[in-house]
């Protein structure tokens, strides 16, 4: 039989995870500015003082949420890319699938929407998100695209904007899921599997080695 001391120790060990889960729920539901640490503590079933034992500020709590639910995946994804043996098309397909399963289909997909709407008011968080999520995530996608180019599976491209072309549909899906999809009924609903399959088809058609390279038009010079 587990004694009271052991139960308290287990409860203490679980608190950081419980606090991060509660914080994710509230940040996604209310946004960063409107979420109060007292609410996070209450939802997690602890006092505000207990929360501050683990996370000294709301900013540090938010950073921990991002690391736990988003950037914490990057190391394993990097390892998968390093040892992937299939085609670069299959690698890109796995990339979209893994993003959806680990982030898009979870409550963590509300974090990109939060950053898009609030980063300007909290530039220090915007800089953190850029360094912790955008840059390493972009680097992983760039590795996939460069692999495809090197192997002759993708045509040469400007990698910076190739990365954006992969990221943009994922960001759109996350924002749509936490905005219009949640309030406009079935007619506004996007089926993620079909959407990502369509996006992958468009990406591979555009990246395909069988299409002649052509520099994209510079819109700023168009007449």
TrEMBL record:
The keyword Oxidoreductase does not apply. The chain crosses the membrane at residues 161-179. Residues 13-73 form the HTH tetR-type domain. Residues 36-55 bind DNA. Gene3D superfamilies: Tetracycline Repressor, domain 2 (1.10.357.10). PROSITE patterns: HTH_TETR_2 (PS50977). Signal peptide: none annotated. Keywords: DNA-binding, Membrane, Transcription, Transcription regulation, Transmembrane, Transmembrane helix. GO terms for molecular function: DNA-binding transcription factor activity; transcription cis-regulatory region binding. The keyword Membrane applies. This is Bacterial regulatory s, tetR family protein. It comes from Rhodoferax antarcticus ANT.BR. The lineage of its organism: Bacteria, Pseudomonadati, Pseudomonadota, Betaproteobacteria, Burkholderiales.
